[in-house]
From TrEMBL:
Membrane in keyword set: no
InterPro entries, A to Z: HAT, TPR-like_helical_dom_sf, TPR_rpt
Designated name of the protein: Tetratricopeptide repeat protein
SMART domains linked to this entry: HAT, TPR
Organism: Aquisalibacillus elongatus
Keywords per UniProt: TPR repeat
Amino acid sequence: MDPIAEALDLYEAGNVNEAVNHIMEHANEISEQDQFSVAELLQQWGFLDEARRLFEELHRTYPGDHQIKFQLADIYIDLEMDEVALELVESIEPDDPEYINALMILADIYQSQGLNEVAEQKLMQAKELQPDNYLIDFGIAELAFHNGEFQKAVEHYEKIESHSGEFPFVNIHERLAESYSSIGKWEEALSYYEELELKEPDPLFKYGYTAYQLKRYDIAIKVWNDLLDLDPDYTSVYPYLAKAYEEEGIMDAASDVLKKGLKKDEHNIELYITIAKNELKQDHIEEAKRYLKEAIALDPGHEKAIVELYNIYETHGDWEDARKLIEELKKFEPYPEILDWKAGQVYNELEEYDLAKEAYTKAHTTFHQEADFLREYGYFLVEEGQIEQAISLLEKYLAQNPEDRETAEFINRMKGE
């Protein structure tokens, strides 16, 4: 039996290292014609250094063979030997029949170096020379896709859609689905996603998200459940799946999903907040407060959780609880500036006006352009008798909300107009 066949038998039996060692030990017995195939085999198996040595030997024997150059350059790129790869490929002249392939490989090299503009120049140069070469369109599409230029990616992927079966490592329809989704063309994206048999978590998440945007909650629920069957630790999907259930009015399922997610990631504050909102929708006020308090315990500076809990206290007039929340959280420096604004509200409701004024004054530094704050602080200052300052704030508010006739008339009355 020849060395190649013996090596293949070893490889298929799972003895990969033995297969490679067998090939390298008998390299001198392999004909030059078969050495190319052996080197390709080693490259496919991931033994790049061994493949490189064989291709370099072949290159020394056949320096004008561009196929050897291309294979060798590909290995150099994988081994992060970009400069050597560049030197090898740039030796191919523009009048050479293989120049187009050389340009495409150069584009790969420059892309791997992060020089995306240079990579695109090489591809466009190739496109000018061979406008109908679908492999060039594929290269342009892939570069655009990885650069986040999804509209351009769509244009070029569509040109090669009829050749989609010729790219074993890239699913063109999946690329089109993701590209359309990324530019907000949800209908087009969904039509492609529905054709695919997805087996990886990230594409499944994007498929579900696309369906969710189209309010196809039934599809989103099925796809995201498939994702969780595949990977229960994909914690970012739990809040989305819960929202899809909520949109369908299946509140119990939403709660169950969120609680399962929390067991997988006990430090995911967004999950605590989402559960709290879900509990509120079911009028489970105490449960909602409990989850928000747990979120704040994990991160005392998490503004979203703080505001959600404060809003519950405000809605139910629990001003003493709101006061305790704010005063406790302000012990943590630096605290979110929103606490100064909320402190002003709380002290005002509790008729502790000096503390309210102090809090509002401090909050003004941060929220001096926030319309709601300007209105609230302005009316507070009216009650404090500081009319001139109040008018100034309310006029700034009115500049942002000229349709508020009530406030406009109030200002005119204060001015005596």
